[in-house]
Amino acid sequence: MLQVQTKTRRGRSARREARLTKNFDSLPALDRGLPYIDLMTDLQLHKMHDATMRILENKGIEFRDDESAEMWRQAGATVSGHLVKIERDLLLKLISTVPSSYTMHARNPERTVKLGDGHTCFVPAYGSPIVIDLEGRRRNATMEDFNNFAKLAYMAPAMHMTGGVLVEPMDISVPKRHLHMMHSLLKYSDKPFMGMVLGRDKALDSMEMVKIVFGKDYLESHTVMTSLANGNSPLVWDETMLDAAKVYARHNQAMLFSPFALCGASTPASVVGMMAQISAEALAGVAFSQLCRAGAPAVYGQWLATVSMQSGAPMAGTPEICHINMLMGQLARFYKLPMRCSGMCTSSKVVDAQAGYEAARNMYGVLMSGANFVLSTAGYMEGAMAQSYAKYALDIEQMELFYRLGKGPSFADFDSALDAISEVKIGNHYLGSAHTLENFETAFSMPAMMDHNSFEQWSADGELNANQRGVNKIKKMLNDYEEPKLDSGIEEALLDFIAQRESEIGQRAL
Amino acid sequence: MLQVQTKTRRGRSARREARLTKNFDSLPALDRGLPYIDLMTDLQLHKMHDATMRILENKGIEFRDDESAEMWRQAGATVSGHLVKIERDLLLKLISTVPSSYTMHARNPERTVKLGDGHTCFVPAYGSPIVIDLEGRRRNATMEDFNNFAKLAYMAPAMHMTGGVLVEPMDISVPKRHLHMMHSLLKYSDKPFMGMVLGRDKALDSMEMVKIVFGKDYLESHTVMTSLANGNSPLVWDETMLDAAKVYARHNQAMLFSPFALCGASTPASVVGMMAQISAEALAGVAFSQLCRAGAPAVYGQWLATVSMQSGAPMAGTPEICHINMLMGQLARFYKLPMRCSGMCTSSKVVDAQAGYEAARNMYGVLMSGANFVLSTAGYMEGAMAQSYAKYALDIEQMELFYRLGKGPSFADFDSALDAISEVKIGNHYLGSAHTLENFETAFSMPAMMDHNSFEQWSADGELNANQRGVNKIKKMLNDYEEPKLDSGIEEALLDFIAQRESEIGQRAL
Q1: In this model, does residue A49 exceed pLDDT 50?
Q2: Residue B388 contacts A where some CB pair is shorter than 8 Å
Q3: Which residues of B touch A396 (CB under 8 A)?
Q4: Which of these, B97, B119, B99, lies nearest to B27 by C-alpha position?
Q5: Burial label, B131 (beta-carbon count in 10 A; 0-12, 13-18, 19+)
Q6: Contacts of residue A394, Cβ cutoff 8 Å, sequence gap at least 6
Q7: Residue from the list A234, A394, A410 with its beta carbon closest to the beta carbon of B426
Q8: A76 Rama class: left (phi>0) / alpha (psi -120 to 50) / beta
Q9: Subunit contact A402:B455, Cβ cutoff 8 A
Q10: What is the ipTM of this complex?
Q11: pTM for this one?
């Protein structure tokens, strides 16, 4: 119902909205202009597929939830307790009803995005309990931080979604936290978002709040959320995640099925071996979504860290993660499923060169993989333990650069550029040529957070490093923020719902 | 000629060499395991080729050297003064004799590398007049810095060459500088290297010094150097570079023909337009090498910065540079030529997140492009104005990661990894499995310069950022350095030659 779009706007409010549109432009989902990269030969791909199917047929996978196991039994799988063995014919039949792409509708239709079939969305980091704040302090995240990151995602052109658990607001008790996070996502941004997934009740509350904003009927035919179900490698889907997945899939809302894999610890110490395992895990999750509702959108994905066999530490941004992302992209195209990876990941504790190397190298591999839902594209630090404001500022600009990279080069002005070559005298410059004057503002990216000035100019400007520039940028963004319009009746209804549920939860907790 | 390899080694010296072999392993040239990425359709490729040919046929290109212009005239080009117009038949005939790959022989045969046909070599940064030293001071580079970077390249496994002008040793006068740089390259490392290119005499001196080490006859049939000829966009090759190119090509030594392009200033403000121009420039240079000696190895390349149309600053690491690198890689494969790009480039003044983002993003594109000679893979700062010791330490490890990435995933242990999946109980870990014990040391990269520890461990270790770890690493490397063996007769002959030439140059200068 999106009443916000149908009201007449006048005077100050209209001017403010015009300003907003101008200031806070958002990019559509990336419509990929780069070719795909296939690391596997056809033979290797089929060997990988066959190995994956044999894992599900012979070893099986545990769905640690009675209802889910029963759903599998009724669908024709061989079920013993929570152990489910799935023949490939059944699995392939189930995933065949998953749409290869879907649209996520935003409460502002201009922010509606397509995902899959060559379309990619960038989404901020998810779930950190800690923030590195604007004073450089490392501390527990709060609801204020959560609200800030919702505002920042709203303002960032290359963030296609506001995100989900932007940080864990540790100052709000766990039973009530999801209500405030959902409220923040709905209030401070008008982009698509992720629902809460810690069990059935939180998913149902999320659905109720979404119904208040979008209307119940609208939701039956429109996907507005994509939520995250983490799998437990090796080969376990647990009740909490399955309960949330059931709620969302039955409401035609999209789910990411993402094994959470520590490569070498919860998988074999082998890139191709672990690929077969996590593919089996993700496919089983995606297939399960179709038992809940055939045709519900679902995403095949993973979260990965390779484990250092020296220290036991999970490592972000290693070449092996790049390989796995690319392998999984090829498998996603084979299965005709949208795919999820993680983007600007780093293990670094500070926003230093390590953070830059790891994040950019990892994200480039994700871009090459063809992933459609890229989580963790802004703010990610310490292998997801912490979220940095400064890195968020740098990352959102990096994602604009990756977006441009992913569009590929344009041949539209080729002939006029050749004319410029004909006209300019050998050894001269092009600064005054007609083609240059026409194209200079758009031909090349001009990232503002990256300092390209001479040493002398940079020195005169205060010798700020990227981390310091990031802090300043966030301060300015939060200062410039203006809230997207939300009907006051909707806002009231949301607050009423939260109050009612808090009271129920509080009573139940007694 | 390579006497160093034929002498008997005994006692302390032999033990020392055994240690060296152990400590300072070097990787062979990368034998690419990733598929290529072609940004142009066949139609676009042929349009690009045709446009490039038309530039050389109709507008022409200046070879600002009488002898070179005369060589073109004799070959059948249309020459007017220094302006050379080259028909496509002539150009394509000339480049057809360029080998698609060649071998660079090192004085230690274990360091000999192949370049082209899917083989890629990583080479440190080139030509900075400034260093950021181990105390963090930004100052003029000296000969001691040059020697240090020769030692470091020798010790770095993924540096396939020592490099060329590792830094500009500003404490040695320009007329004599090349002699000391060549001596350092020959003495402190045993990897292949780049010759000096500022005119005929410096190239001839380089050749003489190389003859002392390798023997005159050996050089006639063995390429030991690849040297850099920068072109001046738009469409100029100058006398200094051509004179050096003539010397090297006539001696069967390889040349990089690299237009030095400020995109938008010395080229059209268009990715595809500038591609046509710099391809024409590079192809004309490569073709020229075959006028000097048919069959001489030559590399098609470029150095690029996109120019900020806001500030006029050259920008490193932009998405447009990635596109151009990939386009040029596709053209190199079409022309069957080895290709040169620049690797870990950044505009940053400090080793911060900007340095990491730009270098890694740029290098990833270079890797995808299929470039065979990757210059500037270590130390590069400030758009080539400065060289950082700390970044050098980080970059050489990053290049080991890129090397591994470029090899692609291995399927060799697929079946045994699948066995491990069969064996490990659902929900358990793989740490004790036979496959893990066999593969844990090699399955995943474990970069030592990247800190993957928990915040608490990192904090206990002194809270060092990547820049600080880089400084410490270089201090340790320079402390651990041991010189590769060079026959004392050769060393004496080199010093005699330098003394003789210095005396001649000194007299001539009077």
Answers
A1: yes
A2: no
A3: none
A4: B119
A5: buried
A6: A351, A356, A449, A466, A469, A470, B353, B354, B357
A7: A234
A8: left
A9: no
A10: 0.94
A11: 0.95
